[in-house]
Design goal:
The complex is a heterodimer of chains A (about 70) and B (about 450).
Chain A (H helix, E strand, L loop, with lengths): L16 H18 L5 H20 L13
Helix pairs in contact in A: 1-2
Chain B lengths: L8 H4 L3 H22 L1 H10 L20 H10 L14 E7 L8 E6 H17 L7 E4 L10 H10 L2 E4 L5 H10 L4 E4 L1 H13 L4 H4 L4 E4 L8 H11 L2 E8 L4 E5 L7 E4 L4 E6 L12 E8 L10 E10 L12 E3 L4 E2 L4 E3 L2 E3 L1 H8 L5 E11 L3 E10 L7 H14 L7 E4 L15 E3 L7
Parallel strand pairs in B: 3-4, 3-5, 5-6, 6-7, 17-20, 18-19
Antiparallel strand pairs in B: 1-2, 7-8, 8-9, 9-13, 10-11, 11-12, 12-13, 12-14, 15-16, 17-18
Helix pairs in contact in B: 2-3, 5-6, 7-8, 8-10
Classes of the chains: A mainly alpha (about 70), B alpha/beta (about 450).
């Protein structure tokens, strides 16, 4: 499915529906990684997942940023 | 199951104007990041009068000062262990690797965070997927898994792809061959010289690996030989498999280029994650398609140690993406990495700088003269032999000295084995002017 969601990628192209879902998942993981109330099993696995999701969203030109402030 | 031919169809087929727009955007952000966080880059940018906001077109990259290995090493020596190159706190690192240095015993040391390390294997995914590895594959790594970055990223890439990964680790060649056959391995990752050695050893064991094995892909890295047609032909015959070249460097942590399954006689540049410039090494002016030049790399991956306009000294010849029929819009290095513009030598995947070897030898007062002799054993395996003459009064100490020299050289080169040969006093040439103590007796590559 390639429905335009209104937002754009780094090149200004409208995001497809699947890109928007990926970007939302990335943002959710980023928010979780910034929390300090998660148990180690959640905190570390969230970071691992975020490191992976950074690749997908970066490969698809959805973001290009660093994540060291959340230890990733 | 039908898979996409590309790991990232969006960017691997991106029109070149858009690709360049993406590169410019990433370059500006990378420079802003480097300037804000890294004293090394702040100092260099300021000295050159460069500011990231000056990057208005991709050609403005030429305003950025070059980064050299020498500067990197000087910074590390001045401020051990990492110099002032780190963009973030060391506690964010999960991984340490090194590569042999240009001079003496100091290596280039690198750190990666969780995201950086994941990116390193992501780049390998581009290459390994592009050469045809899929979740159904069984991939064997003929690799020692040490501090040298080597195939580490490829290992994790294959796990990510979903292939079954067999880490060869510290085994004999015979043990590895038996495992490759027994496990029904379909893909082997190796340096070209070791792949040749394994094929020869299999023959000695009475095994026709091309017939008795299930290998259909050999992924090569660590040496230029993977793109030398004669070597590739020999390897493909011996293994009964397609051989694909890749090339990377510890300084960026991963591969920048890979050969796709269409085997165009060269390696695609991963252009959404790197800017590769090809410059005349003497004038620093860009050279055109089809001309030999030096590759200068900018990496958008590892943010821990930003690498911007790094002079690699690698000799390359860039040709347009359309040279290949695969549909990628990424340009190609015809013949892969063709050689070096400096005196660095690659021995079984390890960088060897004659200056670094000499610095260690010079610590031995008893050594009167020496020669670094590089040769190829049985047309298969690269060897490095240090021929030494010692002053006669030290003859009785030779055995101990030899062992120590062997260890010192190996420790400074990621465990590489050096041969040491004692010569009769007066056998080696003496030099009054520019000394030529390096002899590279390997056959020259034909492209």
């Amino acid at each position: 499915m390639n429905t335009n969601t209104g937002a754009t990628d780094l090149l200004g192209k409208p995001l497809t529906e699947q890109e928007q879902v990926l970007l939302d998942a990335y943002q959710t993981l980023k928010s979780l990684a910034a929390r300090d109330d998660l148990p180690p099993c959640a905190a570390r696995n969230v970071r691992k997942a975020l490191a992976s999701m950074w690749q997908a969203t970066n490969d698809l030109d959805l973001q290009f940023e660093q994540l060291y402030e959340v230890g990733v | 199951m039908a898979y996409s031919e590309y790991w990232n169809p969006k960017n691997e087929t991106l029109p070149r104007e858009e690709l360049q727009a993406l590169q410019l955007l990433k370059l500006r952000r990378l420079c802003e990041w480097a300037y804000a966080t890294t004293p090394f880059h702040q100092r260099r940018f300021d000295a050159a009068g460069f500011k990231p906001e000056q990057l208005q077109t991709l050609d403005d990259i030429r305003r950025i000062p070059f980064m050299t290995r020498e500067e990197w090493m000087d910074s590390q020596i001045e401020k051990p262990l990492y110099g002032d190159l780190l963009a973030t706190d060391q506690t964010n690192a999960i991984r340490y690797h090194l590569t042999s240095g240009t001079t003496g015993r100091t290596p280039i040391r690198v750190l990666d965070s969780m995201k950086d390390w994941e990116w390193i294997n992501e780049m390998w995914c581009y290459g390994i997927w592009g050469f045809g590895v899929r979740p159904e594959d069984i991939v064997y790594f003929a690799f020692g898994y040490g501090s040298f970055i080597g195939f580490w990223g490829a290992h994790y890439a294959c796990e990510k792809i979903g292939a079954l990964v067999i880490p060869g680790g510290a085994q004999t060649t015979e043990g590895r061959i038996k495992q490759i056959i027994e496990m029904g391995v379909t893909t082997v990752c190796s340096t070209p010289t070791y792949a040749l050695h394994m094929a020869q050893k299999a023959r000695e064991m009475g095994i026709d690996i091309a017939k008795e094995g299930k290998i259909n892909k050999v992924i090569l890295s660590g040496e230029p030989a993977g793109s030398i047609p004669a070597v590739k032909h020999t390897l493909e015959e011996a293994w009964g498999a397609k051989c694909g070249d890749t090339a990377g460097m510890t300084e960026v942590g991963t591969i920048m280029i890979f050969e796709c399954s269409h085997q165009p006689g060269g390696t695609h540049i991963i252009e959404d994650h790197f800017i590769e410039e090809v410059l005349n090494p003497f004038t620093d002016e860009p050279v055109g398609y089809g001309e030999l030049g030096e590759r200068v790399v900018t990496s958008f991956g590892r943010g821990f140690i930003p690498v911007i306009r790094y002079r690699t000294k690698d000799m390359v010849m860039r040709v347009p993406a359309s040279t290949c029929t695969c549909g990628r819009t990424w340009d190609i290095y015809d013949g892969g990495i063709r050689g070096r513009w400096d005196d660095m030598k690659l021995i079984r995947g390890t960088n060897v700088y004659p200056r670094a070897v000499e610095a260690i030898i010079r610590e031995y007062n008893a050594i009167d003269e020496f020669q670094i002799y590089i040769w190829r054993r049985e047309d298969l395996q690269d060897e490095i032999t240090i021929r030494v003459e010692i002053t006669p009064e030290y003859d009785s100490e030779w055995e101990t000295m030899q062992q120590k020299l062997h260890k010192d050289l190996s420790n400074a080169h990621e465990g590489l084995r050096f041969n040491i040969e004692l010569m009769e006093h007066g056998d080696l040439p003496r030099f009054e002017l520019k000394a030529k103590r390096l002899v590279d007796a390997r056959p020259k590559a034909q492209y």
